[in-house]
Amino acid sequence: MNENLNEVLLSINSLIRSSKIILNIDFSELADIHFNKEYLKNIFLNLITNSIKYLKTDTLPSVSIVSKKVYGISIENVTPSYRIDFDVF
Question: Could you tell me where the DSSP H helices lie in 1-89?
Answer without folding.
Answer: 2-11, 13-19, 37-53
